[in-house]
Design a protein that fits this description.
Elements: H1 3-13, E1 19-23, H2 30-34, E2 42-45, H3 50-60, E3 66-70, H4 84-89, E4 91-92, H5 97-105, H6 112-123, H7 126-131, H8 143-158, H9 170-180, H10 184-197, H11 200-211, H12 220-236, H13 256-271, H14 279-286, H15 292-299, H16 310-323, H17 328-335, H18 343-363, H19 373-403, H20 409-440, E5 451-452, H21 456-460, E6 468-473, H22 478-491, E7 495-503, H23 510-517, E8 524-526, E9 529-532, E10 535-536, H24 540-551, E11 555-559, H25 560-564, H26 568-577, E12 580-585, H27 588-592, H28 601-621, E13 626-630, E14 636-637, E15 647-648, E16 653-660, E17 663-669, E18 675-678, H29 679-682, E19 690-693, E20 699-700, E21 709-710, H30 716-719, E22 720-728, E23 735-736, E24 739-741, E25 747-749, E26 752-759, E27 767-768, E28 770-778, E29 781-782, E30 787-791, E31 802-808, E32 818-825, E33 836-843
Parallel strand pairs: 1-3, 1-4, 2-3, 5-7, 6-12, 6-13, 11-12, 15-20, 23-27, 25-33
Antiparallel strand pairs: 7-22, 8-9, 9-10, 13-22, 14-21, 16-17, 17-19, 18-19, 24-26, 26-31, 28-29, 28-30, 28-32, 32-33
Helix pairs in contact: 5-6, 8-9, 8-10, 9-13, 11-12, 16-17, 16-18, 17-18, 18-19, 18-20, 19-20, 19-22, 22-28
Length: 850
């Protein structure tokens, strides 16, 4: 209540009152007096001229009600005071702030001493009251709760990494002590504040109880010991027998209850958005007394520790590099859980995982020569394309490390070797064998068991009456379309996708590829520009004309920029007028084809995938439920500049029609280098011309052209283009993927259980993703934290669809000997039908004598 309101109430209650004395030795209410606004009361601030003040009170203000503010202690002896008789004749305002505080929060009377102890400077402060509001309640207020609240309040005030907005639970408060110990000066300031407030004993005892310390003092040394204890016990918890060589064995905690509390503390710390330093980073800094390399020496490199410290993560990553080429599957397993790490370690783990995946693909193919053309196509479209995907992903992730200046030296050496192997073990031998087979029988391209680019319109669109969008994305090579398909299946259960390979026409350049995707009987050249029926195939106006002549004006061509800004109603109206629309998208090629920007090809691919995924979603919202995504050509990309040996001069030629860094089209070319194809055999162009491409994946020297990004040639990466068909059903038709428990051990030791959950099928057009909840139950009671898993992998390899998780028993499990692991689908809200239910026995630790 405001001071002037209190004064006014006194004059209302006591009609004979004329002067209300108010003593304020600490001047807590000085500001209120200076801003006095109660007109019915004269507010007077007493000074040392007491006789003058006495005269005014008795004569000048005799007819007024006066509030007399005295910024001093109440006199113990009034005999010498000139205002004594006035004080006796009137009243003094005395404020029971503690009583009013207890009344405001309805606190029980037996808590008055506690409130009195902490009121001045703490509970009287509005900011503190707001922070402590959840414990300032009759059922919650008590000494320990208040001490916890004040300790948390000052933690957020002193430690930069703490952002509490309300009183946390005890585990987070203990975590704060360890975080605070990372900065000596801040910790000392916090300790002194707690000492002044009488909080040190409370915090010291809580620390001692949790970590079984020999002291109850609150000190940085005690916190360091606690951190060492926590780090050590979390690390060796899965170890059944502590060895005598272990220097830290005396820190081993035997109580399962205390160990569970440590696990709960770590989990609460990780989940708290108010703690800006994670436990692993903090323990690595504060618990420097625990050397993980010593534990590795004692228990062996294959030991499973309770968690991976930064040191153990770095060690595991280094070990993974040693097995990368010879045991790629083992390497992937080793770094799988490192990929979730923050910072450079997680980024490095992604690089290693993709490099290992590349080597794993190659291990299935002792030779890159598959003989028949169709065998090359089958091998590439079934699995080999993944080698290009993993190369692209590894390069993209490594770049992020390099840009941050954080690539470890050991990884840099392995990465350079990987870049070399991509060409020497994969791209060059594969395409040398493929192009030799193609040159030997170019007519066989037409006999391949896949569609040619020139057949696209007749096979997929000529008889189609459903509203259809054809997205022609420049340089969307086969492996990128597979990634796009996976993304769409993961994002929308109603999407149904198929990706089929098509053979692109040669030369694999933009103008030729786009012409072949339009309706035509034959294609001719006007200079270097393809024509259909006398119309140029360049530009959307010409392409619209070609489409409309084939479909009685019910089709048109647009650019991506034309349609991406349309509203829903505008988009729907467009497809009412034109049930078939070709949408031309150009981002990968626009970036890669420019020498200045070719190094940005890899990020351009990721941007293209996002663009196209959003475009398909938009088209579906326009009630276009069939979308075909195709490409004019693919591309080759290498992260390093090609060496001189990969660069060739153009062959001598007569009447050249077209030249690019991967091909030349002319009436005749001379010399024996590279590969030569009759144009009629590898395209629908009606002309007596030949296409010449350089050896393997070499580039022609072309002034102004880039070297890393290339297309126009006859490599599989350039010629094998996708036909990605996307249909959206009006309701979910695909079944959810199934789930299986892989782990076979049926005993829970050391208070937690590590299990592997397998997604038994890849997400596809017939199998949709699912989300599940996993926990340990005793009867119907959950006795562990519940984990949520999203099962949305599109990986063909089963090991890549397995997920590991750790379930820690809570305090409610202390007297439980058996429990059940249960897995529920997220849609089973009442948890009535577990997908998996497995019984486990719980083994307790036995006290050991060291």
């Amino acid at each position: 209540m405001k001071l002037e309101n209190r004064a006014h109430a006194q004059f209302e209650d006591y009609s004979n009152l004329r002067i209300l004395f108010f003593f304020d030795p600490d001047e807590k209410h000085r500001e209120e007096v200076e801003h006095w606004s109660e007109d019915s009361l004269r507010c007077v601030v007493a000074d040392n001229a007491r006789f003058h003040l006495s005269y005014k009170l008795r004569h000048e203000w005799a007819d007024e009600n006066v509030f007399l503010y005295l910024p001093e202690e109440r006199p113990a002896n009034w005999s010498d005071e000139s205002l004594a008789d006035l004080w006796v004749a009137n009243r003094e305002l005395r404020i029971d702030e503690v009583g009013e505080f207890m009344e405001e929060y309805q606190l029980p009377a037996d808590k008055r001493d506690l409130v009195q102890r902490y009121y001045d400077g703490e509970l009287e402060d509005d900011d503190r009251k707001q922070f402590l509001s959840q414990i300032l309640q009759p059922g919650s207020f008590g000494e320990k709760a208040l001490q916890r609240g004040l300790a948390a309040y000052y933690a957020k005030e002193i430690f930069e990494e703490v952002e509490f907005r309300s009183v946390p639970q005890e585990p987070q408060l203990l975590a704060v002590l360890i975080i605070g110990a990372t900065r000596r000066s801040a910790f000392e300031e916090y300790r002194e504040t707690c000492e002044e407030l009488g909080l040190s004993d409370f915090l010291g005892r809580r620390l001692s109880n949790q970590f079984e310390l020999d002291t109850t003092a609150l000190s940085r040394e005690a916190v360091e010991t606690a951190a060492n204890t926590m780090k050590y016990n979390l690390l060796v918890r899965p170890v059944d027998t502590v060895r005598s060589e272990d220097h830290y064995r005396k820190l081993r905690i035997q109580s399962t209850l205390v160990l569970n509390q440590l696990e709960s503390l770590k989990a609460a710390w990780e989940e708290s958005g108010a703690l800006q330093k994670d436990p692993e980073e903090t323990l690595d800094a504060v618990a420097s007394g625990i050397d993980e390399t010593h534990l590795l020496e004692v228990y062996g490199p294959d030991t499973t520790f309770g968690y991976l410290t930064p040191t153990l993560r770095r060690r595991r990553l280094t070990q993974a590099l040693d097995t990368l080429e010879q045991k790629p599957s083992q390497t992937k397993t080793s770094v799988e859980d490192l990929r979730d790490s923050d910072g450079r370690l997680g980024q490095a783990a992604h690089v290693v995982w993709h490099m290992a995946s590349f080597y794993q693909v190659l291990r299935g193919y002792p030779s890159m020569d598959f003989g028949e053309l169709h065998s090359f196509v089958d091998a590439y479209s079934d699995e080999l394309y993944r080698a290009d995907t993993h190369y692209r992903k590894a390069v993209g992730d490594y770049r992020l490390l390099e840009e941050a200046g954080a690539a470890p030296d050991a990884l840099r050496e392995t990465y350079e070797r990987f870049l070399h192997h991509y060409h020497t073990r994969y791209v060059q031998p594969l395409n040398t064998a493929w192009q030799e087979a193609l040159e030997a029988d170019p007519q066989a391209v037409g006999a391949l068991p896949i569609s040619g680019q020139g057949q696209f319109y007749d096979e997929y669109l000529a008889d189609e009456d459903q509203k259809t969008a054809v997205i022609v994305s420049d340089a969307l090579r086969f492996e990128v379309a597979q990634q796009l398909s996976d993304r769409m299946l993961q994002a929308d259960a109603r999407k149904q996708t198929t990706v089929e390979p098509m053979s692109a026409a040669l030369p694999s350049v933009t103008s030729t590829g786009k012409a072949h995707l339009l309706p035509h009987d034959t294609i001719t050249f006007d200079g270097d520009t393809p024509q259909i029926g006398g119309h140029s195939t360049a530009g959307t106006r010409n392409r619209s004309q070609i489409l409309q002549e084939a479909r009685s004006a019910s089709a048109c061509a647009r650019t991506y920029e034309d349609v991406k800004g349309l509203s829903q109603s505008e988009g729907r109206d467009l497809f009412k007028d034109y049930p078939l629309i070709y949408i031309f998208h150009d981002h990968i090629d626009a970036i890669g084809d420019q020498r200045k920007t070719e190094t940005e090809t890899i990020p351009a691919v990721e941007e293209t995938v996002r663009d196209l995924q959003q475009l398909v979603r938009t088209l579906n919202n326009w009630n276009v439920y069939q979308v075909l995504l195709v490409a004019d050509h693919g591309f080759l990309y290498m992260e390093n500049d090609p060496p001189p040996a990969m660069q060739e001069s153009f062959p001598d030629a007569e009447k050249t029609v077209l030249r690019c860094n991967r091909s030349i089209v002319a009436e005749q070319t001379f010399g024996d280098d590279g590969y030569r194809f009759p144009l009629r055999a590898v395209s629908d162009v009606d002309a007596d011309l030949e296409v010449r491409v350089p050896k393997a994946v070499n580039r022609y020297r072309l002034q102004g052209a880039g070297k890393r990004y290339a297309h126009g040639g006859a490599s599989l990466q350039e010629m094998l283009v996708p036909m990605l068909k996307v249909n959206k059903a009006r309701e979910d038709k695909a079944k959810k993927v199934d789930v299986r428990l892989l782990s076979e051990d049926r005993v829970i030791r050391s208070g937690f259980l590590k299990v592997q959950i397998l997604q038994t099928e890849a997400v596809s057009s017939t199998r949709q993703a699912r989300t599940v909840h996993v926990g340990l139950y005793e009867g119907k009671e959950l006795i562990s934290k519940e984990n949520t898993l999203t099962l949305s992998s599109t990986a063909e390899e089963a090991s890549e669809r397995a997920q590991s998780l750790k379930l820690t028993l809570g305090q409610s499990s202390n007297d439980v000997n058996f429990c059940h692991l249960r897995v529920y689908d997220e849609e089973d809200h009442d948890k009535l039908n577990p997908i998996i239910e497995q019984r486990y026995s719980i083994e307790r630790l036995i006290e050991q004598d060291f």
